[in-house]
Amino acid sequence: MKTNTELLADHTWLKIGGPAEITTPQSKEELVKILDCCYQSNRDYRILGNGSNLLVNDDGVDELVIKTTEACMEFKVDGTQVDVGASMMVPQFINKCISNGLGGYEYLYSVPGTVGGAIFMNAGRGESHNMTISDYLISVEVFADGEHCVLTKEDLQFNHRYSTFQDHNDWVILSATFDLPEQSQEKGNRLIKERMEKIRRRERSKPNAGSVFKSGSRLPLHKIPPGGLSIGNAEFVSGNRICHDGNATFTNIVRLITLAKLLNRLVPPFENPEIEWEIWN
Ligand SMILES: Cc1cc2nc3c(=O)[nH]c(=O)nc-3n(C[C@H](O)[C@H](O)[C@H](O)COP(=O)(O)OP(=O)(O)OC[C@H]3O[C@@H](n4cnc5c(N)ncnc54)[C@H](O)[C@@H]3O)c2cc1C
C-alpha cells in the first residue's frame, strides 16, 4: 500500500486540517484489499470522500486516511436501475443518469461530494422539501465488519442527514443501486439549470463546507448581532454558512459554532441546533 503524509487541509473544502497518512486506492479491488488488510491487522482508518462535509483538527488524525475518490467509478444501467460506484461525484452521476433518460436527483446537482459521501450523510434538499438521496436507493455494496457484502435499503436506516453508516464509521460504501424515474433529457437539463441558478448568489469561492447546522436549526438572521458573527478569519455569511479567508484554524471554527449555538439557546425561539458536519478531532 502506497501512503503519503499530507495535510488534510489540502483534501477538504474548508481547507482546514493537519497531517495524516493518506492512501488513495485506484480501483475497488485495491480499496477492498486495503480494508481487508486493516481489518486483519486491527488498524484503524477513516474514510475520506471529497471532503465537502468535514471539519478536521489542525493536529491531524492518527488513523490511516483512505481517500476513496479514485477507487469506485463504475456506472451501469439496466432499464431504470443504475449501479454507481461510490467514488463518482454527485453531479457526474446526475449527468450520466440524464443521458440515459433517468432523473430524480437534479436538486442535488450543487452537492460537491461523492455518491458514497452523499449516502453516508443522506444528502438532500432542506428538511421541509423532504427529498434525499435515499429516496430511490435499493441497495448498497459495502465493506462491513471484515465482509464484502450487499445491504438493502431495508437493512439500513435513513433520516434527516442521517444514515446507519454514521454509527459504523468503519463500514465503507463501495457502490449503490438506485431505481430511478424515467425522465426526458430536456427536463433533466432544465432542472439542473434551475438548481444552479437558485444557488448562484451563494458564496462558494471562499473555503466552506455547506450548511453548518441541520435545517430547522439554523441561526436565524435576527440572532446575528450587528456587524456579523465572526471569530478570527471565519464568519457566518448567512444564517447557516461559515466561510473564511483561508487562514482560519480549527479552533476559530469550533468557537464560532459554539457561539452560534449559545446564541440559538439564549435568543428566542430557544433552539439547540445540531451540527451537520462530520468533525475529525
Ligand atoms: C458548497 C457546498 C454545498 C453543499 N450542498 C449540500 C446540499 O445541498 N445538500 C446536502 O445534503 N449537503 C450539501 N453539502 C455537504 C456535502 O457536500 C455532502 O454532505 C456530501 O454528500 C459529502 O460528500 P463527500 O464525498 O465530500 O464526503 P466527505 O466530506 O469526504 O465525508 C463526509 C463523511 O462521509 C464519510 N464517507 C465519505 N465517503 C464514504 C464512503 N464511500 N463510505 C463510507 N463513508 C464515507 C466520511 O468518512 C465522512 O464521515 C454541501 C457542501 C458544500 C461545500
From TrEMBL:
GO CC aspect terms: cytosol
All residue ranges annotated as the FAD-binding PCMH-type domain in the record: 15-183
Pfam families listed in its UniProt record: FAD_binding_4
Gene Ontology molecular function: FAD binding; UDP-N-acetylmuramate dehydrogenase activity
Gene3D superfamilies associated with the record: 3.30.465.10, Uridine Diphospho-n-acetylenolpyruvylglucosamine Reductase, domain 2
GO biological process: cell wall organization
HAMAP family: MurB
Name the UniProt record assigns to this protein: UDP-N-acetylmuramate dehydrogenase
The organism of origin for this protein: Natronorubrum texcoconense
